[in-house]
Amino acid sequence: MENSAYKRSNTDWFRDARWGVFTHYLTTADTSAKDWNNRVNKFDVSALAQQLEFVGTKYYFITIGQNSGHYCSPNSTYDNFVGIKPSKCSERDLIKDIYEALNPRGIKLMVYLPSGAPASDLVAVERLGWKWGYEGNWPSGGKRTGERLVEFQKKWEAIVKEWSDRWGQNIHGWWIDGCYFADEMYRHPDPPNFKSFALSLKSGNPDSIVAFNPGVKVPVISHTEYEDYTAGEISDAFPTCPGRWVNGAQYHILSYLGQWWGGGEPRFPDEFVIGYTKHVNSKDGVVTWDVPIMENGQIPDVFIKQLANLKQISDN
C-alpha cells in the first residue's frame, strides 16, 4: 500500500464523545502468575460499567499491560515468543469481559499498550529482542544507541495482531506509548514502520483509531500520518486547543486527575476540570482524564464525583 492510499479512520464519534476516562490497571514485576490471575479474576466488570455509565462517559481506556510483563488478556503469540511458564498473561480475557459489559451501555472500549517489551521483565526483553540503550537525557533529547530493532517490531506486531483479531469490532481505539525514537524505529518506507504497526493494530477493526505517543509535547503534535488522533500526553502544562485537527489528526489530550498517573488524591478543583474540558470541546477537541482504579476494578468515589460533573458537558 502506497502512503497516498492509506486512509485515516473517521474520528467523528470520538469528537462527539467530547471526553472520556482512562485507568492504569497494572501490577509489579515480582507478582506471581497465580497472584496476577487471582487479581484479574476479582475484577468486577459490572460494577465498573455501572460507574462509567453513571458519570456519562462515552468511551473508556484501560491498560492491557505495561512494564511488569503481566497482561490482563491471554496471548499465545506472546507466550510462544517469550516462553515463560506459567504465562504472565492472565487466563481471563479481562478486555473481552469489559467490552461485553460496556457495549449494552453504549460505551466504547479503547486500550493502551507500550510500543516496546516490558522493561522490568528481563526474560521478555531478551527473547523479544528489545533494547533499552540510549544516550543523553531520556526520553526528551535522548538518542537510542541501539538499532532499528526489526525483529522485535515484527514480533510485537504479531502480538498486537492476535489481540486485535480476537477482539474485532469491540475495540474502538489504541493508545500506543513510548514511541520516543520514531526516526530510528518507525520512519522508514519499508516495514516494519508506522504504517505496518498501525495496520497490525487495526487488523481486527479497520475503523478503530490509533495514536502513537511521542512523550509530553506542548503544544500537542501529531507524531505521524498513520495515527488518527493525537496521543496528547499532558502533565502540568495545559495548552490552548488550536482546533479539531493537528496535521490531519483529531486533537486529543490525555492527562490525570490524581497527583500522578493512576494515583493520589484529586489535584484540581472541579471548576478547572469542567472549564478546561469545555475549552477543548469548544474547539472540537477531545479530553481523556486518567483516574486511579482499585484492585476490584472500581474507581474511587472521590474521582467518580469529580467525573460526574462532566455530565453537564455531555448533556449540552
Number of domains: 1
Measured between the Cα atoms of the first and last residue, the distance is 42 Å
CATH class: Alpha Beta
CATH homology group: Glycosidases
- On the 0-100 scale, what is the average pLDDT? 94
CA-atom Rg in angstroms: 19 Å
> Secondary-structure element order, as H and E?
HEHHEHHEHEEHEHHEEEEHEHH
Q: Percent of residues in helical segments?
A: 25-40%
User: Largest sheet at a glance?
Assistant: 7 strands, parallel
- How many β-strand stretches? 11
CATH architecture: Alpha-Beta Barrel
Residue fraction in strands: 5-15%
Separate helix tally:
12
Could you tell me the CATH topology label. TIM Barrel
Q: Which descriptor suits the 3D outline?
A: globular
The secondary-structure class comes to alpha/beta
Q: What ranges have pLDDT less than 50 throughout 5 or more consecutive residues?
A: none
Sheet with the most strands: spatial strand order: 7-6-3-2-1-11-10
